[in-house]
Amino acid sequence: MRGSDERTADGYGSFRTFHVRVLLLLTVCGAALRLYKLGEWSFWVDEAHSFRDATSSLSEFWSSNVSNYPLGYLLLRGLLEVVPSSGEGWLRLPFAFFGIVSIPMIAIAGRAIVGRRAALLAAAFLTISPWHIYWSQNARGYAPELLFAMVGIFALHRFAEARSALWGALAALAILGAGAWHPSGLAGIFVAIAFLSIEFAQRLELRKRLSRPLPIVVLLVLLGAVVAWIQRTVPTAAEKKPEFSFVHLAQTFAWFLRPEFVAAAFAGLLLMGLRAGRREVVLLGSWLFAPMLVLVVLGSFVMKVTAQYGLIVLPAALLLAARLIVELADAVPERGTIPRLLRWTMPLIMVASLGSEGFLYYFKRSGDRPRWREAAHAVRDESKGPVLVLATNEPSLAYYLDRRSFYGRPDPDFVVRGITSWDIGRAGGGRGYFEKLVAEAREAKRELWFVLTEPELAEWDGDGSLDAAIRGGAFQRHAFVCMTGPKDMSVLVYRVPGVPR
Q1: Local structure of residue 43 (DSSP, 8 states)
Q2: In this structure, are 288 and 399 located in the same domain?
Q3: Cα angle value 102/107/112 (rounded, 5°)
Q4: How far is CA 109 from CA 106, 203, 275, in A?
Q5: Over the chain, what is the mean pLDDT?
């Protein structure tokens, strides 16, 4: 463990005036990016679910599974009481605020772990990270979850250094608070367990551990929270998401983190590991690997998981990558044109990677959200009477076509229904399901529309029979193109001709 004088000399001390100015500039840029086009993107399915849960009665809400992580929904409920007809931008605004605050947080707290320059560089990466921008522009609890988890893990570092009950209490409360925004935030508990177990095994003798109950109390509190979370949350999630693919999880992690940052994070951890005995190596290693291991175990045996549940590892990856860049830059001579170019090559490559993805996010990929709003408006504008709409994303279509239904006052002219594998199977397959819907629409004298994305339809329509029936029996009126990364999430709008007659 390096002394305080050595840490200060190596850039681990307080920020100077120049550093503060840089951090303020990064925060302003991060705020601009997270507010830019905030209300332009369509609600995707989980955001529509957020709206549904926030507008449900309190009795329904507290009896549902989402009451296990209520903070995001209660925040939206409060906003809707202030402005009941709030649009997408207004509902996303508080979550953008948490994303903005995360930028100075990673720098201010990260400097004690990786140094001032690396912490500022990590803040710069977070400022333009498309993954973080996306969740900051999302009416879901991921951005506040990440901020609370960061606070908790940074407090763990201070707790291990100072052995202060206040830092331990802050770490426990912040990590549990992260879980109150979204269950994936409780991955911070496993980070804490891994870190504290190694830390106290290395630093304290058994006699001292037994004579100092504080670490044991902190671990017991965190373990109790894990047990409670598993009992209340995992069974419901397992029923809804029973499949798992390790390859898919690895691919999506690499896609969202960016391959160069994955490689740089592992290299940075190895480089820091050469400095044996550093507490920071254990912390960042636990932060990077513990959540991933939890996702693999849950996905293999309990429930389906995706990379978004591992958002908590983003700060660790950025801090490690930034530390690697600083170490490599310090190894290059300061004088000469070529050395200067070498010092700037790697950070510019990383910034260019994030910047190019950010450009696509804003100007080519519709905020990485399918264009449900435009599809819904097309149905509304082109229909000439009452309609029955079948959608792979029923919550978003209901939000745009029949928002009153969330308040228990549905619009009789717009009936929106989701496509499910259960309904398809009950009708004897996709062809039978399609014909049943046609008969129902004719009897009710409603136009019949299908609004879908092909990947989501494929999840419910295993043999492709419904897809074939729609293509053969309906006209495609629109294709609202959207490539969310490597996945084609274009929204296709079909109308069945001759219904009603």
Answers
A1: P
A2: no
A3: 130
A4: 6, 23, 21
A5: 87
Chain centroid to CA 291? 14
Cβ contacts of residue 171 below 8 Å, gap of 6+?
152, 153, 155, 156, 159, 192, 218
With a pLDDT cut of 90, the percent of the chain lying above it is 65
Q: Does residue 318 sit in the same domain as residue 403?
A: no
Cross-strand bridge partners of residue 414: 387
Within this chain, do residues 350 and 446 fall inside the same structural domain, yes or no? no
In this prediction, residue 233 has a pLDDT band, given cuts at 50, 70 and 90, of: low
Cβ-proximal residues to 315 (8 Å cutoff; 6+ apart), any chain: 102, 106, 110, 122, 126, 146, 150, 153, 287
* Residue 427 forms part of a structural domain: yes
Name the amino acid, one letter, at 51: F
Strands 414-418 and 483-484: unpaired
Distance of CA 161 to the CA centre of its chain: 31
CB 99 within 8 A of CB 143: yes
- What are the CA-CA distances from residue 313 to residues 173, 184, 257, 298, 317 (Å)? 19, 11, 9, 17, 6
Examine the domain organization and report whether 301 and 421 are in the same domain.
Answer: no
Please count the other Cβ atoms lying within 10 Å of the Cβ belonging to residue 454: 15
CA 85 → CA 56, 70, 403, distances in Å?
Answer: 15, 22, 10
Number of domains in the chain: 2
Q: pTM score > 0.85 for this model?
A: yes
Residue 500 placed within a domain: no
Reply yes or no on whether the pLDDT at 188 is more than 70.
yes
| Model pLDDT, residue 483 | 87
Q: Quick one: pLDDT at residue 110?
A: 94
Range of the domain at 268: 4-368
Assign 3-class secondary structure to 44-91.
CHHHHHHHHHHHCCHHHHHHCHHHHCCHHHHHHHHHHHHCCCCCHHHH
Separation in Å, CA 484 to CA 352, 374, 460 = 19, 16, 20
CA gap 422, 303 in Å, rounded: 20
